Each structure stands twice: as structure tokens, then as C-alpha cells.
Automatic annotation (TrEMBL):
This is Nickel pincer cofactor biosynthesis protein LarB. It comes from Neglectibacter timonensis. Residues 119-251 form the PurE domain.
Length: 254
């Protein structure tokens, strides 16, 4: 039960359409559903405004299917599954309305919500090789109700590619800058735009990139103000944070 559903329930109580005892029973339902191998958080949407997200890596296809099915039974309209394998997608898709995005390894059960954020989120990559992480970020943000603009392969190795989208960057509410190698894209965008920049280092690069560590340290040491950094290849974390920023101001409907 999310905030809007709680609000609607309280309004029904106030109008006399719902007995207090019935409303109390709905609110007293256990805060999680125990599946034995997982305890699905049923009140996360109420606490945080966003329902639980299923992290698919390390889970069997059967476990993912059971968790998603329980969330759907509890009324979740959009269920986000990250790091989902094609094998898991095949199994889940037989029983649930799943859209699987192989590049980002993201599965979405149910319908995509209409954008409710106040602005646009731009997801930009330094190169084409960064697109799997970028798709995880972009699909996460879209599943959480945001308009997303993808700008791929606009890295600083050809600065004219970056500057050709200057108007887009200047009009964004949040920018997610995704790059491997030396990770310079985040600093450049941080020096151009007037909005928060969320930097995502990727594990793309030759040996001395150390699996993304070089980009991570470069981004952490950015001389541009307003740049924050998530972990290596963490497109989900960046998309989630970008959504939170884009929804500031509508967290307490009243």
C-alpha cells in the first residue's frame, strides 16, 4: 500500500464509507510477506514512495518469479527487476506480463507509469560500450515515473559531440553521466550544466583502468561542483537517485 492508497483509505474513513475497524485491518497487515527464502517488503512504497525493487543477480529464476508474483498480488502495478538473466526472463514471462530489456538486463512486470517528475533526466554515456549500464539507469528512471532522454556516445574524446547537445544538458533537471576509461565526462558536464550530475564509473577500459577504479577515482576527484558519484557499473543506483531528485516536492501528497 503506497502513500496515495493510504490517503484514499483515510478519506474513505473520514467520509464514513469505510468502517474504522476495516481500515485498521488493512493498515495492520504484516509489513512483509515471508516466502521462506525472501521477505518481501510490502510497506516500502509507504515509507519511501517507491516499492521494493528485485535484484536478480544471485537469485534463481524460480525465486524471481515467486517474488514478482507476490508483489503483483499485493497490487504493485510496475515491478522492476535488475540484473536479470535471459533464463529468468523466459521463466517469469510465461506467467507474468514481463518486458525484458536484454542490454540493460532489466525486466519490468506490468505497465510503465506515465512520467510524473518535474523535469527531464538525461542519461549520457562517454561511449557505446557504456550503454548496458546506461540502459539500466534509464529504464530504472522510466519505471519510477520519469521522462528520460538518452544521449549515447557523447564522450570527451570528441568534445564536439558533447557540445552539440549543450541545449539538452542545460535544460535537464538531473544528468546521469556514465563513462569508463578516465571518466572525464562527468567533470565536463558538471562544468556546463546548472543541475545535479550523478556520475557512474563503468568497468570499461584497458588494464590500467582497473575494472572501473580509475574512472571512479577521477569522478570522486572532480573539480566541477555538483557532481556526486555512485559505485562502479551501478546504473540502477544512479537512475533511482535521479528519480528522487526529479520528484522532490511531491513526496507528501495532500
Amino acid at each position: 500500500m503506497d502513500q496515495l492508497e493510504i490517503k484514499a483509505l483515510l478519506e474513505r474513513v473520514a467520509s464514513g464509507d469505510c468502517p474504522v475497524g476495516e481500515a485498521l485491518m488493512e493498515l495492520k497487515l504484516e509489513p512483509f510477506r515471508d516466502l521462506g527464502f525472501a521477505k518481501v517488503d510490502r510497506h516500502r512504497g509507504l515509507r519511501q514512495g517507491i516499492a521494493e525493487v528485485i535484484y536478480g543477480a544471485g537469485k534463481t529464476p524460480e525465486q524471481i518469479r515467486a517474488i514478482a508474483a507476490s508483489m503483483r498480488e499485493d497490487g504493485d502495478k510496475t515491478i522492476l527487476i535488475t540484473r536479470m538473466s535471459p533464463e529468468a526472463a523466459e521463466l517469469v514471462g510465461k506467467e507474468l506480463p514481463l518486458a525484458y530489456h536484454e542490454m540493460g538486463r532489466v525486466g519490468i512486470v506490468g505497465a510503465m507509469p506515465k512520467p510524473t517528475g518535474t523535469g527531464r533526466i538525461i542519461v549520457a554515456t562517454g561511449g557505446t560500450s557504456d550503454m548496458p549500464v546506461a540502459e539500466e539507469a534509464a529504464l530504472t528512471a522510466e519505471a519510477l515515473g520519469n521522462e528520460v532522454v538518452r544521449l549515447y556516445d557523447v564522450g570527451v574524446a570528441g568534445l564536439h559531440r558533447t557540445l552539440s547537445h549543450l541545449e539538452d544538458f542545460m535544460s535537464a533537471r538531473v544528468i546521469v553521466a556514465i563513462a569508463g576509461m578516465e571518466g572525464a565526462l562527468a567533470s565536463v558536464l558538471g562544468g556546463l550544466a546548472d543541475c545535479p550530475v550523478i556520475a557512474v564509473p563503468t568497468s570499461v577500459g584497458y588494464g590500467a583502468a582497473f575494472g572501473g577504479l580509475a574512472a571512479l577515482l577521477s569522478m570522486l576527484n572532480s573539480c566541477a561542483s555538483g557532481v556526486s558519484v555512485v559505485n562502479i557499473d551501478n546504473g540502477f543506483g544512479a537512475g533511482y537517485l535521479a528519480s528522487m531528485i526529479n520528484h522532490i516536492g511531491d513526496r507528501n501528497p495532500g
